[in-house]
Amino acid sequence: MKGLYGLAKPMLFRLDPERAHTLSIEALRRGLVPRLDIPVDARLRTTVAGLSFPNPLGLAAGYDKNAEVPDAALRLGFGFVEVGTITPQPQPGNDKPRIFRLVEDGAIINRLGFNNEGHADAFERLQARMRKPGIVGVNVGANKDSADRIHDYVEGISLFEPVAGYLTVNISSPNTPGLRALQKGSELDRLLKSVVAARNGFAAISAMPKKPLFLKVAPDLDQNEIETIADAATKHGLDGLIVSNTTLSRRGVEKHPNAAEAGGLSGRPLMERSTYVLAAFRRALGPAMPLIGVGGVDSAETAIAKIEAGADLVQLYTGLVYGGPDLPARILAGMLRHLDEQHFRSFREIRDSGVEAVLAKGPPPA
């Protein structure tokens, strides 16, 4: 598969990035991806926030924005898939072009702006797959022109709770003006109080178990902001954090022709920054709260580094663009080799083992 994708990639990369993404969704929808040899091993299984994951590797939100192909994505080997970000009303997002490849750096800059078809269409698709196996999380956001963004999040949590494996509140995109302000102070407190109440209220009325509720944060946080978010997450009883979204930093890619494009940077250059913030959250929160590590994962080595820095689960997206559809299977195989070589029974044994080493290096320059 790597060879086939390697042959196709030059042609795909001649296409506009957004067009190539649309074609990849269509290929999954039509079942055009060959059957893959997915490693299945009890040592990869893990339980996080009450959910049993077949392996700790997930597909991050942003790929399947409209919940069109979650089951096809699961068949690539992912232990879970997160769809979205989904807003109450459909919105086109920002003007095109809005995705830029930095091929030499294994990176992407995007300023999509929560482009999606809205709640109704995604809910219908997720409702239709409710009895299928596999954990599918739903990432909810607010419309750009919303008069009450917190209400948008409450609406998303209330609607998707019955059809989601877990729920994510995304307040960390840099491409919706003012959205990251919800990560701070009284606005954060009001948001978390509202979404937790919505989640708990639905569960009480429906007599269903409460779905895990996660908060997705930015990598561009200082220590005071990390501690504020950690305190608020603990206070309001969140089930975990997803660390992190894309970065506004251009460190390491300054000379690339696309570096001046506005938007969030993802991929390999995000690894150091996102992993530092992940470790800082682990130290601020202690060992109990689940963390999902995102940013720069494109190999077994980077996935393992996230776990060592405090992650219970990891997610990727940009790595898939450059690595191809068999990347999840290759990462899982590499993780199993690591367990064999180190004589570990599971990755729980190495979680947090690298936290202090990561933090000792200090925060990366902006």
Care to describe what's here?
By secondary structure, the chain is an alpha/beta fold. The protein has a single domain, classed as Aldolase class I (TIM Barrel, Alpha-Beta Barrel). The chain is 38% helix and 15% strand. It contains 12 helices and 13 strands. The strands form 3 sheets. It has an 8-stranded parallel β-barrel, surrounded by 5 helices. Strands 5-6-11 form a 3-stranded antiparallel β-sheet, with no helix packed on it. Helix 5 runs parallel beside helix 6, helix 6 runs parallel beside helix 7 and helix 9 crosses helix 11. The radius of gyration is 19 Å and the shape is globular. The protein starts with a helix and ends in a 6-residue tail after the last helix. The model has no long low-confidence stretch (mean pLDDT 94).
Topology:
Layout: H1 2-12, H2 17-29, E1 46-48, E2 51-53, E3 57-59, H3 70-74, E4 80-86, E5 99-102, E6 107-110, H4 119-128, E7 135-140, H5 149-160, E8 166-170, H6 185-206, E9 213-217, H7 223-235, E10 240-243, E11 264-267, H8 271-285, E12 291-294, H9 300-308, E13 313-316, H10 318-323, H11 327-342, H12 355-360
Parallel strand pairs: 3-4, 3-13, 4-7, 7-8, 8-9, 9-10, 10-12, 12-13
Antiparallel strand pairs: 1-2, 5-6, 6-11
Helix pairs in contact: 5-6, 6-7, 7-8, 9-11
